[in-house]
Design brief:
The complex is a heterotrimer of chains A (333), B (567) and C (329). Chain B has helices at residues 8-39, 51-59, 62-93, 99-107, 114-125, 144-169, 173-180, 185-196, 198-214, 217-222, 229-239, 243-276, 288-317, 344-371, 376-387, 394-405, 430-440, 443-454, 460-466, 471-500, 516-525, 529-561; strands at 318-320, 324-327, 409-411, 418-420. Chain B is an all-alpha fold. Chain B has a domain at 60-306: MetI-like (MetI-like fold), CATH 1.10.3720.10. Chain B has a two-stranded antiparallel sheet. In chain B, strands 3-4 form a two-stranded antiparallel sheet. Chain C has 2 domains: 2-122 and 245-297, Periplasmic binding protein-like II (D-Maltodextrin-Binding Protein, domain 2, 3-Layer(aba) Sandwich); 123-243 and 309-327, D-Maltodextrin-Binding Protein, domain 2 (3-Layer(aba) Sandwich). Chain C has helices spanning 2-14, 34-44, 57-66, 81-89, 131-136, 166-179, 183-191, 203-210, 220-229, 259-268, 271-278, 300-303, 309-314, 316-327; strands at 23-27, 50-54, 75-80, 93-94, 117-130, 157-160, 194-198, 215-219, 233-236, 244-252, 283-284. The longest helix of chain C has 14 residues, at 166-179. In chain C, 52% of the residues are buried. The chains are: A alpha+beta (333), B mainly alpha (567), C alpha/beta (329). The structure holds adenosine-5'-diphosphate and magnesium ion.
């Protein structure tokens, strides 16, 4: 996916404290030119703080930020030429769409003749040409966020920083905008760092995902690698749902319902049954590891249509062969 | 490790925060400290410990005054809250007609110097009053009841505004839920409305309490033999020129006021949670009983307010009340009294200048406290200082200003060090009056600015910084335009109050300038009650005129902003 | 446009300040009579620029005291001598013998070698009664302090509070100097009839004028001027004699005393000024021949009690605390 492997930004041993608690702890991270990197983690883990440090908005931290091998810690935000988009859009409500963009261009001292052309081109890119005279208040959330994006990319930033840009939007709009964002990023090829707490968003957008927890970076890899080989239960559970059976991580969709008892077949009692659209999530109580072990099973909606999985019903299930530990095999077979 | 990107911008920001802090510290904290020191010194300025306090307890009418003050402040707050709540409810939650007009009428008492209520009360219920003959012989308006009625009047618009905002800004979904549960009328009001504006009520109570506690205009005119704390202060300072004991009495005035300020502060902190819920527009249901009841109530209150104003207008055009009721306009010929030293135009100019700088200082300071992070300890200190003026009686402010700004040197307590007072040059200039006005009325506009700023996205500055725009640019191009309606509101607030205030400026006015409001006192005292009424009425009309300009400008502004302003 | 408005506003604002040349006069003389006097000063000294700060005795005295370390005023004109004595004790005044000081009667000026203050007029306590209201109630007009004890006057009398008002103290001292130790017994009795102790000295008179409270113990000048305004009042000088107060002038002690200040003080006790004062006050401080003032006794000096102003000022603390303990409930 990555266009080039050239290292653009280097974060070295960055730590940040608020009072006595760490907001960031020894963060080391490289960002490659042209890539789309997602910072993923639960709320409060320090993602925004890291992004703000990159933007130059926080000045009081330990460690170094390098760009093309040069320290940029002492450079003011405006001089870094990093574009930034916030969850709350942060559009100036008293300026029309084009004035908002013009504001940014003027601040970067664009020549007058170029400003109009530039506005035109970013509006086209973000599909907003017809709304150029409107005020933020007259636009939907999705449109507003596109304006914010247009405003951020208009001055041709070297890095685009996005802090939960889609989190405030409705599900459908979010999906749509996700596609557009990806496309725009590819078209202009700008190095992009996006903060999100939504794993689905991270997995679908990013070239690489950096997972954070409790102020620390816990894993950084491609989405697939992260999904398939989480390094810790935290990552595993954060990226979707995960069963932990004898310290093996087993995805709920990998647990299969079986009709009859057999080798590697276990039994459990249904404690809940949720309809989730294209699948059904069932929680079981089983005695597989200890007496009260809960196991989560996702069943595609078209499977086992004849069964009802009522609460209290006893059912059988199989665990994937390759991940089942020796212990289980011995005990069952 | 601090990254060394100390730019010009940051230095400038820190300087601004520091100078705003210094402004508040010098003009709020130091005069209070000076007052405290005065209460502990003899007339020559040597430290005498608590001698003045002992002296005060021995000779003063401290205990009765304290009890009276508490009764007055408590009762007038309760009475006024009840009425203001009814009025606010009528103008927010019912279908009664002419709400805008009613709202404006509720504001009228704000436009008048307190003397006006005194004069009107005496004309209506005094021993020669228009209505007095309908009462029993033992009836007298002079005393506790007179003060309570006058104070209830005086604080009504303040409480109305607070409750109006509370009632309007809270989410209607609770009501809808209640409607579904079939709750009705009074039950709904007690179970849902009252709890939901709990903090508004607490704030209103303490604002009312503080205002009526510290006012000395009304008790002076209508108090009869009843002493309150505020008149004690004026007795010592104006009657005996005993600043030391006057300072002691002032400090007692500050204690309950200070206490209420802390509780009120607490309440307003909690209220924030309420305001932050987006408030939906209220679907008003038709309810005949409610309509009739509140129409009668609102009309009743309006008639009383307008009645009071009319009585003063009447007072100002009678030749010699109550013996010669021939109408005359001669009381409005102020040129007859040019030796009174007041000047209508200069009064307006000084009020305008106070309003202009007051709005700038207040808004900038609220912005720096609310939206910036550069010198946090100073920002916190400024926030605390900003709330103190609310509890500071004008009389105390005036005295402490005169004591502080007029000393050519300042001695540092408990040392022999004396430093020259760099600010002494301000004394005797109208600048000091402007500053006194700004400080005296600082807290409410500060809160207004703060709540206006809270509605503004806190990432604007960050966003702009990444766009290479300076904070100053964003302040002027974004924050100011967005807050323009609030700025206008603050401006008229400062203007109106500067027009009516007496207590602080009575000590500070200069040889070249005496405000109209101060002149009222002299006129009333020399028996020219009609002229005093004429001056009061003129001030009311100047303020109404200013209000009309304000409403006009707001309309214009709203048309312009309609496209982009949500509120 | 905005800038022009702002500029004009600032200019107008600056015009509210004082400049250094102007003579600053603090006075407690009545608003309505000042113009006539000051015109005469202006005629005599057209070149002197002056500004007058006028307020009630209490406020003017408080201002001067509070400004002690850095006085604004250059001269004091017509302020209660009791206050001036207080200033004198605090060494706030500068001695000066204005031209014609010898014409001022000895009891009406400071008798230091260089006098620190010189009187212009004296005013006396008086009982102001509303004739219409008394008639309505079929009550007799009181003619002495003793008369005021009549129980039929219950709730009809007001007097200034001696702790709040200079006039109030003057009344108290006047009573004290005629009744001596019986004062307190008398005041206790009087208290039963008093409706209100006011904070200002004029208030009892104005209340009597409007009929709010038909009898007010106040001072003669106020009563007479209310009568001139057309109020139905009678001014009664009590048989026991009246306490009195002097209104006097003084020079404020400060680093730079203006030449014009001396000129003003000279004028302020000049014959022409005294003639003008005499139109309003029954008693003027100098011994020149003037016409009698309507409404006042023919021989006003005889009505005045024999009071030493310095003694009166010295007794204040004791009398006030006695007052407090006697009248405290
Ligand atoms: N200005 C601040 N003062 C104190 N604590 C802060 C401040 N900003 C953030 N924090 C704390 O730092 C931690 C990380 O915050 P943040 O980076 O905003 O998290 P995220 O964006 O991952 O939700 C949180 O615990 C937050 O409470
Ligand atoms: Mg965040």
């Amino acid at each position: 996916m990555m266009k080039a492997n050239k290292n653009l930004i280097q974060i070295e041993n960055v730590s940040k404290k608020y009072g006595n608690t760490f907001a960031l702890k020894n963060i080391n991270l490289e960002i490659f030119e042209g890539e789309f990197l997602c910072l993923l983690g639960p709320s409060g883990c320090g993602k925004s703080t890291l992004l703000r440090i990159l933007a130059g908005l926080e000045t009081n931290y330990d460690g170094k930020i390098l760009k093309n091998g040069k320290e940029i810690d002492a450079i003011e935000p405006g001089k870094r030429k990093f574009g930034m988009v916030f969850q709350s859009y942060s559009l100036f409500p008293n300026m029309s769409v084009e004035k908002n963009i013009e504001f940014a261009l003027k601040a970067f001292k664009y020549e007058k003749q170029k400003i109009n052309a530039k506005i035109e081109s970013v509006l086209e890119l973000t599909n907003l040409l017809e709304h150029r005279k409107k005020f933020p208040n007259q636009l939907s959330g999705g449109q507003q966020q596109r304006v914010a994006l247009a405003r951020a990319i208009a001055p041709e930033p070297t890095v685009l920083l996005l802090d939960e840009p889609l989190s405030a939007l409705d599900f459908k709009v979010r999906e749509e905008l996700r596609q557009q964002l990806k496309k725009i990023q590819r078209d202009i090829g700008v190095t992009t760092i996006m903060v999100t707490h939504d794993q689905e968003e991270a997995l679908s957008l990013a070239d690489r995902v950096a997972v954070m927890n409790h102020a620390e970076l816990v894993q950084i890899s491609t989405p697939e690698e992260i999904y398939r080989n989480p390094k810790s239960f935290f990552v595993a559970n954060f990226i979707g749902t995960m069963n932990n059976i004898y310290n093996k991580f087993i995805r709920p969709e990998d647990v299969k319902i079986s009709d009859k008892k057999g080798c590697n077949t276990h039994s459990g009692i249904v404690i809940s049954n949720e309809f989730r659209g294209f699948y059904r999530r069932i929680k079981l109580k089983s005695e597989i590891e200890n007496e009260k072990k809960e196991i989560i099973v996702d069943i595609p909606i078209f499977h086992h249509q004849d069964r009802s999985f009522n609460e209290g019903e006893s059912i059988h299930f199989n665990l994937p062969q390759e991940v089942v530990s020796e212990q289980i095999k011995e005990r069952i077979c | 490790m601090l990254k060394s990107n100390f730019s010009l911008q940051k230095t400038f920001l820190s300087l601004m925060i520091l100078s705003m802090f210094l402004f508040l510290f010098i003009f709020i904290a130091i005069p209070i400290i000076k007052l405290l020191l005065t209460s502990l010194s003899d007339p020559q300025g040597s430290f005498v410990g608590f001698e003045n306090f002992k002296e005060y307890f021995r000779q003063g009418e401290f205990r009765t005054s304290l009890v009276n003050s508490l009764i007055v402040s408590f009762s007038s707050s309760i009475i006024s809250i009840t009425l203001a709540l009814g009025f606010a409810f009528a103008t927010t939650r019912t279908n009664i007609k002419f709400k805008a007009v009613l709202k404006s009428i509720a504001m009228i008492p704000l436009f008048a110097p307190t003397m006006l209520y005194g004069i009107s009360l005496i004309y209506l219920f005094g021993n020669q009053g228009i209505f007095t003959k309908f009462f029993s012989d033992s009836f007298s308006i002079y005393g506790l009841w007179g003060i309570i009625i006058a104070e209830s009047f005086y604080i009504f618009p303040h409480l109305f505004l607070i409750l109006y905002v509370s009632l309007r800004s809270y989410d209607s979904s609770l009501y809808e839920a209640a409607d579904m549960m079939n709750a009705r009328g009074m039950k709904k009001f007690i179970k849902i409305t009252l709890p939901s504006i709990k903090y508004g009520l607490i704030t209103a109570f303490f604002v009312g309490f503080t205002l009526s506690l510290t006012d000395f205009g009304a008790p002076k005119i209508i108090g009869g033999r009843t002493n309150v704390l505020a008149t004690e202060v004026s007795k010592y300072i104006l009657g005996q020129q005993n600043f030391q004991i006057g300072a002691v009495a002032s400090l007692f005035l500050l204690i309950p006021a200070g206490l209420s300020f802390f509780i009120e502060n607490l309440a307003s902190k909690r209220q924030k949670a309420f305001y932050s819920h987006g408030s939906k527009n209220f679907e008003l249901r038709k309810n005949k009983f409610r309509f009739v009841f509140f129409t009668i109530f609102a009309v009743f209150i309006s008639v009383i307010i307008i009645g009071f104003l009319s009585v003063s207008i009447f007072a100002s055009v009678t030749t010699l009340w109550p013996y010669n009721l021939k109408l005359t306009l001669s009381n409005y010929d102020f040129s007859r009294f040019n030796m009174g030293g007041f000047n209508v135009w200069k009064t307006i100019i000084v009020a305008l200048v106070s309003a202009f700088f007051g709005s700038i200082i207040c808004f900038t300071n609220a912005y720096l406290i609310q939206k910036e992070k550069a010198l946090l300890p100073f920002q916190k200190a400024s926030r605390l200082l900003s709330m103190i003026p609310m509890a500071l009686p004008g009389l105390v402010l005036g005295i402490s200003y005169i004591l502080f700004f007029n000393s050519p040197t300042l001695s540092i307590p408990f040392t022999n060090i004396k430093i020259p007072n760099a600010l002494a040059f301000l004394y005797g200039t109208p600048v000091i009056i402007v500053i006194a006005n700004i400080v005296h009325f600082y807290s409410v506009p500060y809160l207004t600015s703060t709540s206006a700023l809270k509605k503004i996205d806190s990432n604007f500055q960050a966003a702009a910084q990444t766009m290479n725009a300076s904070k100053l640019t964003v302040f002027f191009k974004v924050f100011i335009p967005i807050s323009l309606p609030s700025l206008l509101e603050i401006f008229v607030y400062f203007f109106t109050n500067s027009m009516v205030t007496i207590s602080a400026v009575i000590f500070l006015y200069t040889a070249n300038f005496k405000p109209m409001s101060v002149a009222i006192i002299g006129m009333e005292e020399s028996g020219n009650i009609a002229v005093a009424a004429a001056l009061s009425v003129s001030i009311v009309f100047i303020n109404i005129f200013a209000r009309l300009i304000y409403i006009g400008l707001t309309r214009l502004l709203n048309i312009k902003r309609k496209k982009w302003d949500k509120f | 446009m905005k800038k022009i408005v702002f500029f004009i506003m600032m200019l107008a604002f600056i015009s509210c300040s004082n400049d250094n040349q102007t003579l600053i006069i603090y006075t407690a003389l009545e608003n309505d009579i000042i113009p006539a006097y000051i015109d005469d000063f202006h005629k005599n000294y057209p070149e002197i620029k002056y500004k007058i700060v006028r307020d009630s005795t209490g406020i003017i005295a408080s201002k001067i005291l509070a400004e002690k370390d850095n006085p604004t005023a250059d001269v004091i004109w017509g302020l209660a001598a009791t206050s001036l004595i207080q200033f004198q004790e605090q060494e706030m005044l500068e001695g000066y013998a204005p031209k014609g000081i010898e014409k001022i009667k000895p009891q009406f000026k400071d008798n230091s070698a260089t006098p620190q203050w010189a009187g212009i007029d004296a005013w006396m306590t008086a009982i102001v009664v509303n004739t219409i209201e008394l008639e309505k109630r079929a009550l007799p007009t009181p003619s002495s302090y003793q008369d005021l004890l009549d129980p039929r006057y219950k709730g009809l009398i007001t007097m200034p509070h001696p702790a709040s008002s200079g006039t109030g103290y003057l009344i108290l001292y006047g009573i004290f100097s005629t009744m001596g130790e019986n004062t307190w017994e008398y005041l206790k009795e009087l208290d039963k009839n008093i409706a209100e102790y006011t904070h200002s000295g004029s208030k009892p008179a104005t209340s009597a004028g409007t009929g709010e409270y038909p009898i007010g113990i106040s001072f003669g000048f106020r009563g007479v001027s209310l009568k001139k305004m057309g109020m139905p009042v009678e001014v009664i000088f009590p048989q026991e004699g009246s306490g009195w107060e002097l209104e006097a002038n003084a020079l404020i002690k400060k680093a730079e005393i203006k030449e014009s200040a001396y000129k003003f003080l000279d004028w302020a006790i000049s014959d022409s000024a005294m003639q003008l004062y005499s139109k309003n006050y029954a008693i003027i401080a100098s011994d020149i021949q003037v016409e009698n003032v309507e409404g006042f006794p023919v021989d006003p000096l005889a009505q005045m009690l024999n009071i030493d102003l310095k003694e009166s000022a010295g007794a204040k603390t004791t009398l006030l605390s006695n007052w407090n303990s006697v009248l405290k409930k």
